[in-house]
Amino acid sequence: MAGFDAALPQFEAAGAQVVGVSGDAWQALAAWKKENGIKHLQLSDFRRQMLPAYGALVTDQTSPIYRYPKRAYFIIDKNGVVKFVKVLENPTMLLEPSEVLAALKASGS
């Protein structure tokens, strides 16, 4: 997440806002954000309303991480149209901010 904070000026120059969504309760998320010095907006989806709508929640009931959020990246334009989706099955994998910036530029958003 710190990589996205470092790249915030590039995202802002492209007219984009970086928003993180977590399955943690807002209190835990606020503490984590403060502890790690995260600057970009973080939202809590503790009730699991947004995550499944975007395919970013483990729904396999036999999985040991059932109902855990997946690592996912989306580019949504100002009209609410999803322009880019990358959902990673391995939660330890991360995209580099440069990859998301390239997708942002390619999407025309």
Keywords:
109 residues; two-stranded parallel sheet; alpha+beta; 4 helices; 19% strand; Glutaredoxin; two-stranded antiparallel sheet; globular
Task: Give the low-pLDDT segments.
Answer: none
Strands side by side in the biggest sheet: 1-2
Helical content class: 25-40%
Total individual domains: 1
Q: Counting H and I runs of at least 4 residues, what is the number of helices? A: 4
Helix/strand-derived category reads alpha+beta
Shape: globular
Please name the fourth-level CATH homologous superfamily.
Glutaredoxin
Question: Rg to the nearest angstrom?
Answer: 14 Å
Characterise the protein shown here:
- The protein has 109 residues and is α+β, with helices and mostly antiparallel strands.
- Helix content is 30%, strand content 19%.
- The chain contains four helices and four strands.
- Strands 1-2 form a two-stranded parallel ribbon. It has a two-stranded antiparallel sheet with strand order 3-4.
- A hairpin with a 5-residue loop joins strand 3 (71-76) and strand 4.
- The longest helix is centred in the first third of the chain and has 11 residues, at 26-36.
- The two termini are 22 Å apart.
Q: What topology emerges from the helices and strands here?
A:
Layout: H1 2-6, H2 8-13, E1 19-22, H3 26-36, E2 41-44, E3 71-76, E4 82-88, H4 97-107
Parallel strand pairs: 1-2
Antiparallel strand pairs: 3-4
